[in-house]
Amino acid sequence: MKKIAVFTSGGDSPGMNACVRAVVRTAIYKGLDVYGIYRGYEGMIEGDIKKMYSHSVSNIIQRGGTILKSARSMEFKTPEGRKQAYENLVANGIEGIVAIGGDGTFTGAKIFQEEYGIPTVGCPGTIDNDLYGTDYTIGFDTAVNTALEAIDKIRDTAAAHDRIFFIEVMGRDAGFIAVDCGIGGGAEFVMVPETKTDLNKVVKSMKNLRKSKTSSIVVVAEGDEEGNAEVIMNKVKERIKDENKDFKVTTLGHIQRGGSPTARDRVLGSLCGMAAVEGLIAGKMNCMAGVMNQQIVYTPFADCIGKEKPLSNEHLKLMEILSI
Ligand SMILES: Nc1ncnc2c1ncn2[C@@H]1O[C@H](COP(=O)(O)OP(=O)(O)OP(=O)(O)O)[C@@H](O)[C@H]1O
Ligand SMILES: O=P(O)(O)OC[C@H]1O[C@](O)(CO)[C@@H](O)[C@@H]1O
């Protein structure tokens, strides 16, 4: 293998730049030519592919976002789009690919590799932490810390005004961010897609809580089955029926996706980037390079996508105990 390419795709995440940097520098260190594909699968289809050098990735390890940019491509989901992408890779002599992204990115990579056979190794780049085959995903730690900083500030004003705040964090299908924010932010409740939210129980305990506490924080993952934070707040308000209680909603939104990555995300991104290139050279394909128990592990895309990564029962128990 002489030429490889790297791209970032799906939702960007802090630490993706560290990962790109490690891919580029590991490739050069190992004597390979390395190309950057811009805007994920969009750029692969449009042929937006440029050679990268060691200096191309200077001064980026501390930056959020991704220098390769990211996109969600509908066209790559079509056979015609993937054919065009393949032709562009062949035209550039690309023999191996590092795909940095989440489960959607790996779904596309798996289909593409099975159709056209270019070996692909993935790196877990998503803030959601919802990928089987790695203890943490690149960007999760930064996202949680960003959200926590905001929650701490909301707590100050919640306490000053005796208010109940419903704070929505990201997590379309996963509650990892919400649970860690709940524990770390001292929330009274956490609502996540993985577990059934019992609003009657919440209302009951909220009424009891209010005897001893004057303010409350409820962390809601955006994908909770009862709805988003606004919807849930209205349902709870309706059931509590107390004019004296003051309810507020804050949606943290995309602030969680940006910012300078934490040390953990920089190191994880760098490790996965290095491991992906080493994996390609060793003949690995159709798999993701992740880190479990401090060891680099290669997990088939089929498992990363198909197997559920459960929330930690210990974390859920801790949340319940600490919120009394
Ligand atoms: N079934 C599929 N077939 C082909 N390509 C796909 C498929 N699913 C996803 N992709 C490609 O992967 C891209 C990224 O997927 P998606 O938007 O779901 O983000 P992601 O990688 O899951 O990241 P995040 O978890 O941060 O949202 C899609 O825009 C699409 O181009
Ligand atoms: O606004 P976008 O780019 O569609 O992404 C939003 C989604 O991306 C994620 O941050 C990561 O997958 C989700 O938690 C969120 O729902």
From TrEMBL:
Substrate binds at T126, I127, D128, R163, M170, G171, R172, E222, K248, H254, I255, Q256, R257. Its EC number is 2.7.1.11. PROSITE patterns: PHOSPHOFRUCTOKINASE (PS00433). The active site is at D128 (proton acceptor). ATP binds at G11, R72, S73, G102, D103, G104, T105. InterPro entries: ATP_PFK (IPR022953), ATP_PFK_prok-type (IPR012003), PFKA_ATP_prok (IPR012828), Phosphofructokinase_CS (IPR015912), Phosphofructokinase_dom (IPR000023), PKF_sf (IPR035966). The keyword Membrane does not apply. One of its GO terms (biological process) is fructose 6-phosphate metabolic process. Keywords: Allosteric enzyme, ATP-binding, Cytoplasm, Glycolysis, Kinase, Magnesium, Metal-binding, Nucleotide-binding, Transferase. It is an enzyme of class 2 (transferase). Pathway: Carbohydrate degradation; glycolysis; D-glyceraldehyde 3-phosphate and glycerone phosphate from D-glucose: step 3/4. It catalyses: beta-D-fructose 6-phosphate + ATP = beta-D-fructose 1,6-bisphosphate + ADP + H(+). GO terms for cellular component: 6-phosphofructokinase complex. GO terms for molecular function: 6-phosphofructokinase activity; AMP binding; ATP binding; fructose-6-phosphate binding; identical protein binding; metal ion binding; monosaccharide binding. Allosterically activated by ADP and other diphosphonucleosides, and allosterically inhibited by phosphoenolpyruvate. It holds the Pfam family PFK. Residues 3-279 form the Phosphofructokinase domain. Transmembrane segments: none annotated. Mg(2+) binds at D103. HAMAP family: Phosphofructokinase_I_B1 (MF_00339). Catalyzes the phosphorylation of D-fructose 6-phosphate to fructose 1,6-bisphosphate by ATP, the first committing step of glycolysis. Homotetramer. Belongs to the phosphofructokinase type A (PFKA) family. ATP-dependent PFK group I subfamily. Prokaryotic clade 'B1' sub-subfamily. This is ATP-dependent 6-phosphofructokinase. The lineage of its organism: Bacteria, Pseudomonadati, Bacteroidota, Cytophagia, Cytophagales.
